[in-house]
Amino acid sequence: MVDADVHVIDRGGLYCDMNYMLEGHVLATRDDRNPDADYGEIPVWNLVIDHPEATILWDTGSHHAAADGHWPDEHVQAFDPHDAADHRLDDDLAAAGYALDDIDAVFVSHLHIDHAGGLEFFAGTDVPIYVHEEELRFAYYSVATGAGDDGYLRADFDHDLNWRPLHRDREERFTDLAFVRFPGHTPGLTGSVLHHDDAGTLVFAGDQLYMAENYREEVPLGGPLLWGKTEWRDSLRRIRAIERRHDATVVYGHDPAQFEAMRPGWGV
Length: 268
Fold this sequence. Notes:
The chain is an alpha/beta fold and 268 residues long. The protein has a single domain (5-22, 42-266), classed as 4-Layer Sandwich (Metallo-beta-lactamase, Chain A). It has helices at 73-78, 89-95, 133-145, 154-157, 212-216, 229-246, 256-262, and strands spanning 5-17, 39-51, 54-58, 105-107, 128-132, 162-166, 170-174, 177-181, 190-196, 200-204, 249-251, 265-266. The longest helix is centred in the C-terminal third of the chain and has 18 residues, at 229-246.
């Protein structure tokens, strides 16, 4: 167990059709052939893990100009980053008591547009950027070919960065903090397992699990956001095994109710 302060950083929100979050969330029936869509807001957040060995930024959120030309219009239409301009990474870190220079390492669960948008703040620095090699490979493949996954934006991650790729399915780069690959949403999506001396074991599942229903009811992510359903189910079982073994708390990627409950964080 490690004595670490884990700050939850509010990075704004996205408006979207909840069918993206939960497969088949709103479906037509014979008697209701045109049901109303469930259009709602999901949170975007980062962590600052103030670990005895390093101050680690966990994900980097959406780019602050996402709604002002940084994101293509089709992305804005699908996932409206309505308040991104109010959530620059450096400003949000400052509100939590941290400067960019305080960050010793960055961990990126995956390189989609609402997770990699702040990487530009670390361009040209020697701050290590941890991401799984499968994720880095797939992101570049996607933006170079137009195939793969359109959730990536080259302008978010194609910078002069000190990449430190993760190569295995589980790597412990810091004491009692393991980076664990959970493929499904993307091939290289990687979460974190933190053995915290006060809160117990925390599993940050990232976008492997958007919401409680994905986990508790095993409802998959919406089809366009699921790279591999078989891999997703395998990863879900892996998370369940970690939860059972350690009586862990599982933290989802975009669950509004859980987000409010877990603020301001653990140990803070």
